[in-house]
Amino acid sequence: MSTLSPEKEELIKQDLNAITQQLSLLDPIPLGTGNWGRVYRCQEISGQFVAVKIQKTDEYLDQEYAAAEMLNQLPTEYFIKSFGQYKFSDRVFIVMEYANMQTLQKATDACLMPRVNILIILAHDILEFLSHLHSHNLVHCDIKPPNILFSRVEDTDFFVPKICDFCECSGMETMKTSLEIGGPPFYHPPEVWNKMSNYDGGVDIWELGLVLYLLATGKSIHHPSAFLTLRQYGLALPTDIQPKHELKEINKEQQDLLLDKNGVHLKDTIGNDFLQLLSLMLTFDPRKRPTAAQLLTHHVFTNAQFDISHIPIGYAEELGLKVDYKSQHIAQPNIPMAQVARIPLDKPITKEQKKEIIPIDLNTLAQQLGLRERNQFEDLKLMISEGFQVLKTLGEGGYGRVYLVHHPELGIIAAKIMDNKDFDQREWDISGILNKEACPFIIQNILARKFQTQTVILLEYANLNSLWSLIKKRKVFPLTIIRAILKQILIGLSMMHSKGLIHRDIKGENILLHCPPGTERVFLKLADFGLVKLQKNIDQTTQMTAVGTTPFMPPELLIGVEGDEEVKADSKVCI
């Protein structure tokens, strides 16, 4: 029996419908809800996972997405990337990278104390992100365990931390005159508690230091005195490892800060070097607190004898994490998928600015897609004018250009574009014959249309590259896999032959792979019908010119190659 109120159930129902109908995403699953909105995990038709955050339009701050759009250009992987924003009715839908291993809050809630190597990696990776963020005069202002996600790096045995949620992100110019900042007060540094103003990136440094202190000591955020003492003094080093020129006695309360929840001194658990780093991050005086860039030069990182760019998957349990082996995909952004509000981040946002949506121009879009040729630019212009969203380039050759596109009515499909002079009506007629009887092992063509100078063919999209991508790896496959591959190809060929069609160019590049989202199955699909021969009588042999890719031709066709003469070949033997 559902514990949700009827109003909440109706809201989620509306969300799910909008995600599938408006965004063309599959299998939305609720991940969480709060005052900030609701988050769902969804699948693209390619099989990749994304997260969708939904908020009310009047509660959404355009600066969050504007900041995220800028951050997408940063050369670091340690934050959640945003792919686009959509506004429907009274809601904003933000499509984001999906992190598949939960948050750091699992560890802090359970008062876990992971090994120091994990703490070093966490500190390094998040400081790397903060150094980039601060170099753009932005401060996150809300570094806390729930905003530190983890995601497994695809096809590896490692995972990385990723900072999320830029709702409280603020420009440094604004912070200089502010007395308060957003986010929960527990993680705020002393200067914010004391309303000293003139804040900067040191806010993030303190907040990260406090998160690392929780992990190093295993203390609960409800500890009766530890965090009050931290805000009063910062984290002072024990006298035996203080720099001699800065030697200061520390009182009993300060000494207690240097003990973990079991009463063991931090020198004996995390070592002197990491304790020194932690002390620098939790320096009481913000003027003496090092920047992220300065902290990255600390010897705890430069002298590390292990890879500090990611965490081995074997350490996941120490952070209270479970590995989602079925959801390891991390979607990568191709282009901003919606119009973006260009809002100065260091100024208050007015209602008029909120309404101001400036479209990305074609030159910017072409640059982001890597389209440099004139014909590619014309392709982009044509597809946008016809209501398509171009996501990325799939391939280019003598046959034309192929793009991954999205259309509200057709979903995600492939678009093959060529000059009119290169369009082969016979190929389209062949596709019409094949489309009369659907076969899961043959790429389906959807429609074709001639424009003034270009012809566009829309066809089914296969999301896993081609069989050649597997062949060229020279990997030996089990017999069971080879049988499955052979069976699917033969079923596709059998269907073609039953229609009197001979493909004549069977090769790895023309056998595409597709995994329907949520099935964990792979289908092979025959593609490229430019050389198909139509038999007038399928029970007899037929005359054929030797065409196709020479290494894959059968002997009976190669006999006549030299003189370019026609030879007789039975279709079943030829293929």
TrEMBL record:
Binding site for ATP: K53, K416
Top-rank taxon: Eukaryota
Gene Ontology BP annotations: autophagosome assembly; regulation of autophagy
Keyword Kinase applies: yes
Record's keyword annotation contains Transmembrane: no
One MF annotation (Gene Ontology) recorded for this entry: protein serine/threonine kinase activity
Protein kinase domain mapped to chain residues: 25-301, 388-575
SMART domains: S_TKc
Record key words, sorted: ATP-binding, Kinase, Nucleotide-binding, Transferase
Gene Ontology cellular component list: autophagosome; cytosol; membrane; phagophore assembly site
Organism expressing this protein natively: Streblomastix strix
Descriptive protein name: Protein kinase domain-containing protein
